[in-house]
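Notes from the pairing session

We agreed to fold both candidates in a single pass and log them together. This is the raw record for the first candidate, unedited. Please don't reformat it; downstream parsing expects exactly this layout.

Candidate A
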Amino acid sequence: LIAFTDNKFNKPYKDLEVGRKLYEMNDEGKYKEVIEEGTRFLRDHPFDLRSLFEVSYAYFKTNNKVVADEYLLKANQIFKAMYYSGDATTITTPAFALNPSDGQDFILNAVGGKIGTMGSGRDKDGYFIDMLEMKMEGEQSQTLYFIIHHATKKMFE
């Protein structure tokens, strides 16, 4: 994941648009188009969580559950890598996130929580950090921290 930050195809803020478009297409029932466009995008962006989830959903809706599960497995492997990079519970142990929406996807899809307040800041070394409030049913909310400094450096590419 970290090595991909230098990949010429990695444009974290621009890539968000693709995931949003795939989501809208799934919402409109355009599953075949999601599979085609999403698969094409994932060739050069294999770690894009939103696209992995949207393509998985499209395969699921077209009754191809085996392939849908393969895309979910890839997304879950990324979640594990994020967690192993840092447990996200303090600003000194942030989890790595490839793009700005990965922390949100981690809370929603890996942990099963809801997102509360969203903010950002910098750690003691000046690196840009996303700070996301995670709300779990029946538990006190907790702030999780995700390092996205590399993404902000590419913001205007």
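Candidate B (folded immediately after A)
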Amino acid sequence: MTREQFVDILPALAEDYRPSPDALRKISSLTLLIVVGPTGVGKTTLIERSGFSFVPTDTTRDSRPGEKQGIDMHFTKDYDQVISDIKGRRFVQIAVGASGDLYATREGSYPDSGVAIMPIMADTVPVFRKLGFKNTITAFIAPPSHEEWMDRIRKSGLSERDLQDRLPEARRSFQFALTDEQTDFILNDKIEAALKQLRNLALGETNRIRGQRARIAAEAILNRLNSR
């Protein structure tokens, strides 16, 4: 199967997709900590150091610089196998990215109990909330300022072209968080402070002061993005 054929049939499969009863039973005992935020805000570092069970995503997109197979994501170009897995209901959920690529999580990628953590595009957060987890907690990671965010992106080696390609998704991410009543804001100014805030959030504890500071920073960044 060619990529063009795969991209053509994937949307219909994703729209009608339902996970297996076994997958639904498994996630019903889990708390899912959803981490949202645009490129460069530090999601990966926070997730890696959180101490919670990371759920890697299967995807048909190309890997990005620094991403490792089987650690950051499971990258695949075996479109026939992906279609077979979708029809066999081997995924908990599937979604279609802006470029037509698959983003999905397998039942076996989730822990048997406790808290699972994963980065999720803002567009798909409502899907995960409806899947049937015991609890879902949404954390938006905000840098302290637009200048600090851009500085982190430059240091990561992301090209200007790649940055421009990702700005529409960044805007949607900020817009979602600022209008969603269930999203809590994590201020990533200092890694240890952000980690503490994230871990406490998973326990049901919020830091109102840091959360408000993060929200104000997010509002200012979105205004900056919208003025471009």
